[in-house]
Amino acid sequence: MSSTFIKTAGYGDNLPGEAAALRWLAHAEPSGGIRIVRVISVSDDVLEEERVITGAPSAAAARRIGAGLARMHAAGAAWYGCAPDGWPGDPRCGRARTPYVAREDAAASWGAFFAEHRIMNYVRTIVDRGDFGAHEQRLFERVASRLVAGEFDAPQPALVSEAGAPCARLHGDLWAGNVLWDVDPAAPTGGVLIDPMAYGGHAETDLAMLALFGYPYLGEVVRGYDEASSLADGWQERVGLHQLAPLLLHCVLFGGDYLDEAVRTARRYA
Prior knowledge:
Oligomer: single chain
């Protein structure tokens, strides 16, 4: 088996941007951030990474993954919606072309950022395509209005706040398939992250994404995170709100049952 993994560019891929995101996240490793897959080389067409040999899930490794995520988030970002340092070319990310936010357009609060650049950005695309009608649009507009008003704003986890960063350094696509279990059960951070859509945001968004589709020993991941960097009061009640971003992204990409799930979730926060 080759010691490297080769990824070739498909629709929407910005491989130099993905390499920049991986390196940006890896800056946190010396201070205990979770391990990030190593970039060997990159061009517009090919990204060569180390091949990650995976191991079996365990409660102990899950707690270390949680602590490593907390320290990665604490490396911080300059503003909500910012691109990773060194991001080249098109200021959009992924197949849904999710836009990064320029510094001069940055929102002053997480709620304002999340309302415009995540919720309504995706909803407008879905409405234009005809998958949501006026009723669904008004529902999401009510959620967005409450976000802009600051009703759901909450402090970042303790380490992010203590670092004085404007916001957290997010992986951005933290579903189970992108959080690999390290083959060494005693590895310091328990796992390895791959395939980011990294940006500056609220740390709770990454954790909510990990919960959306399930992850082994998720409770232990959260326990390890909270022990390393205390989560703000009421974080459990905000999980569904943060999940609206990946749900709506899946509506853009796949439609189907995700449309109904996004609407059901939005009703809880309207």
